[in-house]
Amino acid sequence: MNNIELKEAIGSLSEIKLDILQLVADGWTNKQIGFVRGVDPNTIKNHLREVADKLCISRASRAHLAVEYTKWRLAND
Questions:
Q1: Chain segment 18-60, per-residue pLDDT in tens
Q2: What integer pLDDT is reported at residue 47 of this predicted model?
């Protein structure tokens, strides 16, 4: 995925998914995010799977998602 496609894909994410992605990029665990958002950690895991699908990342690791989000954030600052 090139930078333009990445920008469009991340830009089209819901506010909830962007928030979760930001927290992952900051090093939070699914359990921590779930606690703060008041949802089960599996809900967070499902959101991250949907984000990975949208970014065309198969079997995305948390690190990969964090890197992609950070690249997007830096390009948009």
A1: 999 889 888 899 999 999 999 999 999 999 989 888 888 776 6
A2: 94
- Fold (CATH) for 3-75: Arc Repressor Mutant, subunit A (1.10.10)
Largest CA distance in the chain: 35
Quote the CA–CA distance of 54 and 14 in Å, as a whole number.
11
What's the pTM?
0.78
Is the backbone of residue 3 left (phi > 0), alpha (psi -120 to 50) or beta? alpha
What b/e sequence results for 35-72 when a residue is b if at least 16 CB atoms lie within 10 Å of its CB, and e otherwise?
A: eebebeeebbeebbeebbeebebeebeeeebbebbeeb
User: CB-based burial of residue 18 (10 Å sphere; 0-12 exposed, 13-18 middle, 19+ buried)?
Assistant: middle
